[in-house]
Write a structure and sequence with these properties.
The complex is a heterotrimer of chains A (532), B (211) and C (545).
Chain A: H1 2-18, H2 30-36, H3 42-45, H4 58-62, H5 71-75, H6 92-103, H7 119-132, H8 135-139, E1 152-155, E2 158-161, H9 178-187, H10 202-205, H11 210-222, H12 245-252, H13 268-279, H14 282-286, E3 304-305, E4 310-311, H15 327-336, E5 338-339, E6 343-344, H16 347-355, H17 362-372, H18 415-422, H19 424-427, H20 446-449, H21 454-462, E7 464-468, E8 471-475, H22 489-503, H23 512-519
Helix pairs in contact in A: 1-7, 6-17, 7-11, 9-11, 13-17, 15-17, 18-22, 22-23
Chain B: H1 17-28, H2 31-41, H3 44-49, H4 66-79, H5 86-99, H6 103-116, H7 122-132, H8 136-149, E1 151-152, E2 155-156, H9 163-166
Antiparallel strand pairs in B: 1-2
Helix pairs in contact in B: 2-5, 4-5, 4-6, 5-8
Chain C: E1 7-14, H1 18-29, E2 34-37, H2 45-53, E3 85-87, H3 123-127, H4 137-151, E4 154-155, E5 173-174, H5 180-192, E6 197-199, H6 233-242, E7 246-248, E8 252-258, E9 265-271, E10 277-287, H7 291-300, E11 328-332, E12 348-350, E13 365-370, H8 375-384, H9 389-402, E14 403-410, E15 419-427, E16 433-438, H10 443-462, E17 466-470, E18 507-509, H11 524-544
Parallel strand pairs in C: 1-2, 1-10, 2-7, 3-16, 4-5, 10-18
Antiparallel strand pairs in C: 6-12, 8-9, 9-10, 11-14, 11-17, 12-13, 13-14, 15-16
Classes of the chains: A mainly alpha (532), B mainly alpha (211), C alpha/beta (545).
Pfam families (chain C): DAO (PF01266), GMC_oxred_C (PF05199), GMC_oxred_N (PF00732)
Protein name (chain C): Choline dehydrogenase
Keywords (chain C): FAD, Flavoprotein, Oxidoreductase
């Protein structure tokens, strides 16, 4: 189970290491956690690191980490600009200067033509770019080999199957020339001339510089391990089933304009915009799409539906977006996937954090955050107060009115009791989470306080499984596959309404039918007696 | 040990006008209501809506069960606590009264005794009560068991909200409600000095319930 | 309801606990058709969590699991009992509890996942006591590891802390960091005694594992882990169902049919809760119904062909009942506040008495310091002493933080006179007799317990303990075993080294009932390893035939 993620992370750690970034091992270590507690335990701390069976990663071996680092890689080296500790208030001014000071030190001319770099430096750059562009997220299926494709991506027109982009000549992109590669990456046209579906964010990648495209190509060709397997073909409904129709789409869809020069020498905001648009392709999810499924650029990052999960409004609106966040908050979120009292990443954002943003350099995180926080504010249709502003700790005695029931009593419970039985053990009877924030609070929580209850339902159904740095955040899901507890649609609806009423902005009147539409898995296997 | 344990916090701002009316109605309800209806009525959702929680001013409204009000006063003295949660108190009271036909009169008797002297501590009061009537020891045990263990009439009235967990919350969590995060238990809990106080009542046989 | 048409599968398993469900999972994943018949109902966690919180007698780990009438289990450990009727000089020492429901008794266990020592399998050869098993530690080693991976067991690095059972692989998860109370206990043992405290291997997550979260120390492994951080059989049920195994709840098997030669089992019959009878046929049959219910089922199935019960030509079905009957003491430490009950229940063990030359005359044992929340106990105690108000609160804090409990697992020996029989007077609503057990603690175990008491007294002294309360008599540990004992000789044993019955070539037993001796470690991991070995045997015979 963990193998896939650990493998990917190891691969990415290796990739990032090429860029000169030192990252701690990925596995959660109880001993390490114990040490981070107030008083380290003498005995358990003495426990050696576990023999993790999942550590070695094939790609890491190939990556030849950071042997010959040169001037360029040091551009990306983390300096002392780790984010301010939670208690330390960061003024916009000093966080700004920290960000500026970090990345771009030796930048001579911001728009100067890119200097040719050594092969090692180019591969290092390519590895970092692949991470920042989060190619692996789509081009690897769960349990599959890195970049061998096969992941099914749901779209309104059907599932698009990600392709094999390893350098295997038959099954992958091994026969692609650099020009072919560039044509696919920036223009959405395959080597055979057919058009890619816009699930592939080439409209974003179009913004990459020539130098970065070249580096990415070099890394894919030389470092990624070829995999000789082809995923199944995408089979969409008409008219999208006609790849030629994509040509028309391609024609009207707005694209990024290629950046120029050496992207590592940009100033903070330019670097941030480059990261957000050309690499991380934030807008792919967070910008709503028009009827042509093209991103609405006048609603940049104003929130978009992914079918089940919803990528919220992350504009600088203080009511609809994240205008109440500091740059350090956003940096912490992108690095770790959580900020106590604000938000936790689950679903696709957890994957983006795990595979991509948690591996960015401090300087890049600050650049990205600084740029995002300057995005024009957009009001939100559903969120009228900051999503993380809602709620407070619940205080009510647990007055009990019945004794133990027979073991075959599987009657559906009401919202408060479902919460008590399934959630309170970790999130607390008061919703405050654990003292160490390993389990987040439910008040001051963007998912709970959102006007749209969908992400809360999805979190209850699917749980959270997010590894960033040394932290492995995990919440079990409660859907029909759960090992911990399988809840019915009616129970999840009741629970969602109880949680939003108690810790959020009110009872959203979620119905079992809505839960059912989001569930999209096999029906509840257990218990059979539900709802009788 | 801290001199005054914090009471269960109550958020009066939370109380809607309707909830205030509800609370008054609850106080006015007859004893039968308390005994039979309380259990069902004071579940989470309803309890959260019920106003007051803190009964600072016992209101001897006509028609209310006066002994329920007396129970709260006696409980405050026997716990050395200036404030106790009325919602919990009502549920404990209903259970204790249910458990034995004598209990209501005994609580009244305790209340009368309380009014007859200036008792400055639970211990002084409990000792005086047992001296006045040895049968009062049992009802004091019931009251202690109700508030501290959350058990009345052999049934759970509250679990995590029992006072035994309030007074140990700096060190330990009620089972199934541990929110310290993984491996919190490796840290050193607070030291506890050897107690200096004395028992107020004569000892009883301690019977460990068989598992 | 009329009887449905006969169901059939390659393998029919009776019992859905850790043994039955893990076999079902292995076989279903290999493409073999499986039907599992579970006497009890489907259940789920959330109701048990609420049942626990609504339970007045919190230490009663049977309390949150009120049985269904068609598949009763013991309501408590009290003698006389409503279901498991014990008698004999040590009747109270065999008052075992277990659960009859989907997933089985591991819904409430403490997750202790010991491998047996190599010597535990050859007690007769090495020490002249008891019996040898019909297999060796090395035969079981790969299946021990398979069971550890299946359950998710955390444990110490063997290079740092060798638990005496040689391992080819490290534990699947890193050992659990121990509580402050356990750290102090460990320090005391290290400094003041010749003994040692080791990390107890546990089927408990020290990181997210099998889609279940990391342990958060709710201190409620027994009776119910509220978050699923500890293994129980229901996960194997879920995995087996996902792999295609069919589980039928509320199916109380009461009859094992054989062919005319009495060599092969041809089917089983079960009652549903309305006592309609159903029949299930198959190629192989596995009885995995817990030590007590397995023996009961074999005895209940007696007929003209097998007047003493199925698989019982030796007469040993129901005999040789064993447990880890132990000693328990509670006292008030005079040292620093320990606040037991922070973290999981059982994490630390003194293992010096698990093996030694003295095993030729007295039984081995292991010592647990129980890390159990004492607040409720302290409150009851302080109230009974007559405290009220502020003085009561002082006492509760002091007793909660200074109460220490020790208990031991002491080794029993197989004695044919310690015997399970069918009750002649008590029957359940389906007409199936309740189990009766006669129990007399073997002298070997009595001597072991005497030694334990001396050690406990020494520990109490070292902790400046007062107010010792010794649990009267001997303390059942719910590790019943031996009722279908394993051996090489069909005349004095029920199953062979592969857990196949000597009498019926396609009938296997997966339960602690096959144990030839009981060692000292908790039995569950060995039950799981034996079950996985049965699955391996079945796969070989069914797939390569």
């Amino acid at each position: 189970m963990a193998d896939f993620r650990t493998l990917l992370c190891s691969a990415l750690v290796a990739g990032t290491a090429l860029a000169g970034v030192a990252l701690a091992p990925v596995a959660l270590s109880p001993a390490a956690l114990a040490q981070s507690a107030d008083k380290p335990a003498d005995k358990p701390a003495a426990q050696p690191a576990p023999a993790q069976p999942t550590v070695p990663a094939p790609v890491a071996e190939e990556g030849k980490p950071a042997a010959g680092s040169d001037a360029k890689t040091s551009d990306h080296s983390p300096t002392s600009q780790t984010p301010a500790p939670a208690g330390e208030a960061a003024t916009p001014a000093n966080s700004q200067s920290a960000a500026t000071g970090a990345a771009m030190a030796p930048a001579s001319g911001t728009n100067a033509a890119a200097q040719p770099e050594s092969a090692d430096a180019e591969l290092a750059r390519g590895a970092y770019l692949a991470t920042a562009a989060d190619c692996v997220a789509c081009h690897t299926k769960p349990g599959g080999k890195p970049f061998a494709g096969g992941l099914k991506i749901a779209t309104p027109m059907g599932d698009v199957v990600a392709t094999n982009i390893t350098p295997d000549p038959q099954h992958g992109i091994g026969s692609y020339t650099e020009a072919d590669f560039e044509n696919a990456l920036r223009h959405g046209v395959r080597k055979d001339g057919s058009y890619l579906y816009p699930v592939m964010p080439y409209v974003s990648y179009a913004g990459m510089t020539d130098q970065d495209v070249k580096a990415l190509y070099a890394w894919f060709m030389h470092v990624v391990k070829p995999v000789a397997e082809s995923p199944e073909e995408t089979n969409l409904s008409f008219p999208a089933s006609l790849r030629s129709a994509m040509m028309a789409w391609n024609f009207v869809a707005s694209k990024e304009t290629p950046e120029t020069g050496d992207s590592s020498t940009y100033d903070t905001l330019r670097r941030g915009r480059y990261l957000a648009n050309a690499l991380e392709h934030c807008g792919t999810c967070h910008t709503p799409r028009n009827f042509m499924l093209s991103e609405k650029q006048d609603h940049y990052l104003a929130g978009g539906s992914l079918g089940t999960w919803y990528a919220p409004n992350v504009t600088s609106s203080k009511t609809g977006g994240i205008g109440d966040w500091s740059e350090d908050d956003l940096v912490a979120y992108l690095r770790s996937g959580h900020v106590a009292g604000r938000a936790q990443a689950a679903g696709p954002m957890a994957e983006a954090v795990e595979h991509s943003t948690s591996h960015l350099t401090d300087a890049d995180l600050h650049a990205l955050a600084a740029f995002i926080l300057k995005v024009a504010p957009m009001d939100d249709d559903a969120d009228h107060t900051a999503r993380d502003a809602a709620g407070k700790a619940a205080e009510m005695p647990d007055i009990r009115t019945k004794g133990p029931q027979r073991i075959d009593d599987l009657a559906e419970m009401d919202g408060p009791h479902i919460y008590d039985a399934n959630c309170s053990a970790c999130h607390g009877h008061d919703g405050a989470g654990t003292k160490d924030h390993y389990v987040p609070s439910l008040f001051n929580n963007s998912t709970v306080g959102a006007g749209r209850p969908g992400n809360l339902i999805m979190t209850i159904l699917k749980g959270v499984d997010r590894t960033a740095g040394t932290e492995h955040a995990f919440m079990p899901g409660f859907d029909g596959q759960s090992n911990v507890q399988r809840l019915s649609d009616a129970e999840i609806a009741a629970l969602t309404n109880y949680i939003t009423a108690t810790f959020g902005t009110g009872d959203h009147q979620v119905t079992p039918e809505l839960v059912k539409s989001l569930r999209k898995d096999t029906p509840v296997v257990n218990p059979l007696a539900k709802g009788k | 040990m801290k001199k005054d344990w914090p009471c269960v916090p109550v958020n009066l701002q939370n109380v809607s006008p309707n909830a205030m009316r509800m609370a008054r109605l609850m106080r006015m309800s007859r004893r039968d209501m308390l005994m039979t209806g309380m259990g069902a009525a004071v579940t989470y959702g309803v309890a959260s809506g019920i106003a007051g929680a803190e009964e600072t001013q016992p209101s001897p409204a006509s028609g209310a069960d006066p002994v329920a009000t007396q129970f709260m006063a006696v409980s405050r003295l026997l716990t050395d606590r200036p404030t106790l949660d009325l919602r919990i108190g009502n549920a404990i009271y209903a259970g204790i009264v249910q458990s034995s036909a004598d209990r209501q009169a005994q609580i009244s008797k305790l209340h009368d005794l309380m009014g007859s002297g200036q008792f400055t501590s639970a211990s002084a009061f409990a000792a005086a009560a047992e001296k006045a009537d040895p049968a009062l020891k049992d009802v004091i045990h019931d009251i202690m068991t109700g508030w501290y263990r959350g058990v009345a009439d052999g049934k759970v009235v509250v679990y995590r909200s029992a006072l035994m967990f309030d007074i140990t919350k700096d060190a330990i969590y009620p089972k199934t409600y541990a929110t310290g995060g993984p491996f919190y238990w490796t840290t050193q809990p607070p030291e506890v000095d050897r107690p200096t106080g004395h028992p107020a009542l004569s000892p009883s046989k301690f019977v460990v319930e068989p598992t | 309801m009329p009887s449905e048409q006969t169901l059939s599968a390659d393998v029919v398993i009776v019992g859905s606990g850790v043994a039955g469900s893990s076999i079902a999972n292995e076989l279903a994943r290999a493409g073999i058709s499986v039907i599992v018949l579970e006497a009890g109902p489907r259940v789920d966690r959330q109701h048990f969590v609420e049942n626990f919180r609504n339970l007045e007698n919190k230490p009663s780990y049977q309390g949150p699991f009120p049985a269904v009438p068609w598949a009763r289990h013991p309501p408590n450990q009290i003698t006389p009992n409503d279901y498991l009727h014990t008698s004999g000089p040590n009747a109270e020492a065999y008052q075992q509890v277990y659960l009859r429901m989907m997933g089985g008794t591991t819904w409430h266990w403490a997750g202790c996942a010991w491998r047996y020592l190599p010597s535990d399998f050859e007690l007769k050869t090495r020490y002249g006591q008891g019996r040898d098993w019909a297999l060796k530690y090395e035969d079981l080693e790969p299946f021990y590891y398979q069971a550890e991976v299946m359950m998710g067991v955390c444990g110490p690095d063997p290079a740092k802390e060798d638990l005496g059972s040689p391992r080819k692989q490290p534990y699947p998860m890193e050992a659990l960091p121990i509580s402050y109370a356990a750290q102090q206990f460990r320090k005391l043992i290290d400094e003041k005694t010749p003994w040692r405290v080791v990390h107890e291997p546990q089927a408990r997550n020290t990181r997210p594992y099998d889609s279940r979260p990391t342990c958060e120390g709710h201190n409620n492994c027994m009776p119910i882990c509220p978050i699923g951080a500890m293994y129980n059989g229901s996960y194997s049920v879920y995995h087996a169902e996902a792999a295609g195994a069919k589980f039928i709840p509320n199916a109380v098997v009461y009859k094992i049919e054989r062919d005319s030669a009495n060599k092969r089992v041809t089917g089983v019959q079960y009652y549903d809760p309305d006592k309609n009878s159903h029949r299930v046929t198959g190629k192989y049959f596995v009885i995995a119904a817990h030590c007590i219910e397995t023996a009961k089922l074999l005895l209940v199935s007696a007929d003209e062909q097998s007047p003493d019960g199925v698989a019982n030509s030796s007469g040993h079905v129901g005999r040789n009942m064993m447990d880890h009957t132990g000693v328990q003491v509670t006292f008030i430490s005079g040292d620093k506040a320990l606040w037991p009950g922070r973290g999981p229940l059982e994490t630390n063990v003194i293992d010096n008495f698990r093996d030694g030359d003295w095993r030729n005359e007295r039984g081995a044992y292991l010592v647990h310091m129980v890390d159990d929340n004492q607040v409720d106990f302290a409150t009851q105690m302080a109230i009974s002493k007559g405290y009220v108000g502020r003085e009561l609160e002082e006492q509760i804090r002091y007793l909660s933080s200074h109460t220490v409990r020790l208990f031991s697992h002491n080794e029993a020996l197989p004695d044919p006179d310690n015997r399970l029989t069918l009750s002649k007077t008590n029957k359940d609503i389906l007409g199936i007799p309740h189990p009766d057990v006669y129990y007399k603690l073997p002298e070997y175990t009595v001597k072991s317990c005497e030694h334990t008491r001396k050690v406990f007294k020494e520990l109490i002294g070292l902790m400046h303990g007062t107010d010792e309360e010794w649990t009267p008599g001997y303390f059942p540990q719910d590790h019943p075993s031996g009722s279908t004992i394993m051996g090489t000789d069909p005349k004095d044993s029920v199953v062979d080294g592969h857990c196949r019955t000597h009498d019926h070539e396609n009938l296997f037993i997966a339960s602690s009932s096959v144990f030839s001796t009981v060692g000292t470690g908790n039995i569950t991991l060995t039950v799981a390893a034996l079950a996985l070995r049965v699955a391996d045997t079945l796969k070989k015979e069914l797939l390569h035939g």
